[in-house]
Amino acid sequence: MTTTTLAVLVPLLPFLGAAAGLLLGRAAPGFVRPLAVLPTVAALVLAVLVAVRQGGGRAVDAATQLTPTGSVPIELALHLDGFAALTAVLVGVVASCVQIYSTGYLRDDPRYPSYAALVSLFTSAMLLVVYSGDLMVLLVGWEIMGICSYFLVGHYWETPEARAASLKAFLVTKLGDVPFLIGLLALAADAGTFRITGVLGSVAAGGIDHPTLVALLLLAGVAGKSAQFPLHTWLPDAMAGPTPVSALIHAATMVAAGVYFVARLLPLFAASAAAMTVLAVMAALTMVGSALAALAQDDIKRVLAYSTIGQLGYMSGALAVGDRGAAVFHLLSHGAFKALLFLAAGVVIHAAGTNSLAAMSRMSGLARRVPDAYWTMTVALLALAAIPPFAGFFSKEAVLVAAEHTALGDRNVAPAGAGWTVFAAGLLTALLTAAYAARLWLLAFRGRGTEAPDHGRQPIAMSTVLWVLAVPSLAFGLAVTFLDDWFDGNALTPTTTTAVLGTGLALVGGLVTYAAWRRATARAAHVPIGAVAAHPEADPAVSEAEAIATHVPAYGSIASAPDPGDPGRLLLGPLHRHAATGFHLDAVYTALFVRPVRAAASLVRFLDREVVDTYVRGAGATTGLLGAAVRRAQTGNVQTYLSVLLAGSVVLAVAAVLVAAGA
Questions:
Q1: Is the peptide bond before 179 cis (omega within 30 degrees of 0)?
Q2: Quick one: which of 81, 182, 195, 646 has the fewest CB in 10 Å?
Q3: Is 224 exposed, middle or buried (0-12, 13-18, 19+ CB in 10 A)?
Q4: What positions does the domain NADH-Ubiquinone oxidoreductase (complex I) chain 5 N-terminal occupy (predicted)?
């Protein structure tokens, strides 16, 4: 079987599994789990075979015309290079782990068949984006992921938080997709093709007339899909969905799609210094702002959500300085440890009966209740904080090295100002990342108070997946010396300067947070008002849904808790209140966009009801009155008709005489 045939089967198998799961979910429920897991695992095996055959060498291209358009053709094309091969393996690994984990996490969920089918479709769409060599076909996968995220984030549709989060995710990402589509059409009009190889050839030949405009339009879609400032606000709220969905979205699909897209078309963006500068500023604001927000969140999943936004900022920063190898390297590394963090968080939420770090900090023995989640989450948090030799250290250092080289003029792909911006923001974010990672670990696993509820052992499917993901979270970075050939050939190994600076700042962030936690512990004598725990006998998915639904009534906010024992509150000081709400961006958008749109909608409704409908009702009423008047004349009396006829004849005769006399 050829490499091209194997690559076609990779996205096709999960799609067929999704279709079969939807068709057989109710009729044959015993087949639902095999149809969810086996096609995804098979796609992973085939993706590994494709990667082995591709071997980081010359790209494999194949295409067939999909449909004649009369102008720019649309082709069903494959483009398999080192980036695509390794990213597809990541998608397969994370998706397989999510499907296996979900068999235990949602084991008694009545909507599991549709859930599993949507996860398979989500996986298929991302694999289509990864392997596609045609921008229009890539757009199909791009949009299918948006639809799947709407349904999966809203899985707990009984709760208002899930309904609002799914709608917000859909609308905000669509807001970015509109200029994204315009940018794709403009790019194809200039290049004369939707083929990625053709577009890159046109860029190299200087055939793109307006590279800055096209790049900025495309960046709007990337900002929405990859949750970058200012279109990042949907991602923290999307935590209202099931934890396995969060792992899939954050680690290997959707948010990774935007970064991967820019990596594919990086020469186009590099053709515009303005676009690279905008990307650098966007990445810097995203990194620092999200790290500050993560330090103030009470919901354990919202901490991880803001963490994802920040790590995506690192990837965007690497792209802004012209090193897509460093960006994709961090994408791969981050995918492993972020999937582990979310899946472990699901176990912790089930064991604690709450998603509140404030409530967990009042429990003792939580680490003993869930040893698998404790140890694997510790590994993942160390990788997130970029502590050597964990995977996150090597990939984050690759980003900082790329920024340093651009800042010092060793590379001229991007402006030096972009390099300094990314480098400074990256170092500051390294400090803050270690701080919020340490805060999460201390509050979740070093609590003091009543004994954590005993839910028994977690399903083996959930525990096994955690250890599988712990391996790349620990060891993937060691492959750094072998990955150069898979990317652009740029060295990804750390330098002494960035390693000392990055690791030193991370250690400072962790130690300062530990000191603040020790000081704040004395203030945590009583449980925060309204602290609650879900029913101890509930299944994991039910516990999570209850935790989400009860957080606002318990604390008055979905994001924070009035906890005097929170070290984040001590570290941020007066900034804590603003960071907890994401620096009020939702309020700003509500004032600038939501209220004007609603006001305009109210005006349109008023005009429709009171003006347009008035004319319509008036026309109907006038017709009715005329009909009533005519009806009165129709008495059915012959004498009356003759009298009226005679009177009319007399009137006409008199009128004729008067007219003649006047003439």
A1: no
A2: 646
A3: buried
A4: 68-115
Q: Concatenated DSSP letters for 304-318? A: HHHHHHHHHHHHHHH
Q: Compute the distance between CA of residue 26 and CA of residue 47 in angstroms, rounded to an integer.
A: 31
> 76 burial class (0-12, 13-18, 19+ CB within 10 angstroms)?
middle
Number of H helices, E strands in the chain: 29, 4
Residue type, 51: A
Distance from C-alpha of 568 to C-alpha of 93, rounded to nearest angstrom: 34
Sort strands 450-451 and 60-67 into parallel, antiparallel or unpaired.
Answer: unpaired
| 552 vs 537: CA distance, rounded Å | 22
Identity of the residue numbered 4:
T
Output the CA–CA distances (angstroms, integers) from residue 223 to 214, 415, 476, in the order listed. 14, 21, 28
The token pair that represents 584 in the structure block? 């009020």
Q: Which two tokens stand for residue 306?
A: 């803001």
Helix axes 82-105, 243-251, angle to 10 degrees: 180
Looking at residue 469, its pLDDT comes to 95
Helix boundaries (H) for 353-415? 357-360, 366-369, 371-384, 391-407
Q: Is 295 helix (H, G, I), strand (E, B) or coil?
A: coil
- The sign one gets for the Cα dihedral 218, 224, 227, 231 is positive
| pLDDT < 50 stretches in the chain | 527, 529
Q: What pLDDT score was predicted for residue 640?
A: 78
In this structure, what token pair is assigned to residue 630?
A: 């005519």
- Residue reference for tokens 């409908």: 613
Q: What tokens does 531 get?
A: 């602290």
Can you spell out the DSSP letters for 248-282? HHHHTSTHHHHHHHHHHTHHHHHT-HHHHHHHHHH
Structural contact between residues 242 and 541, judged by C-beta atoms closer than 8 angstroms: yes
Predicted confidence at residue 394, as pLDDT, reads 94
- With a CB cutoff of 8 Å and minimum separation 6, the contacts of 299 are 239, 355, 356, 357, 551, 558, 559
| Residue with the two structure tokens 């603003």 | 578
Three-state secondary structure along 562-628? Answer: CCCCCHHHHHHHHHHHHHHCCCCHHHHHHHHHHHHHHHHHHHHHHHHHHHHHHHHHHHHHHHHHHHH
Q: What share of the chain is helix, strand, coil (3-state, %, to 5)?
A: 75, 5, 20
d(CA 454, CA 352): 9
pTM for this prediction: 0.89
DSSP string for 34-94: HHHHHHHHHHHHHHHHHHHHHTTSSPEEEEEEEE--SSS-EEEEEEE-HHHHHHHHHHHHH
Length of the chain: 663
pLDDT at 331: 95
Residue with tokens 């398979």: 120
Beta bridge partners of 74: 67
Chain mean position to CA 655: 83
Task: Please tell me whether residue 488 adopts helix, strand or coil conformation.
Answer: coil
Hey, what amino acid is at 233?
T
Query: Residue 441: in which H helix or E strand, if any?
Result: helix 416-445
Contact 458, 350 (CB under 8 A): yes
Q: What is the DSSP letter of 459?
A: P
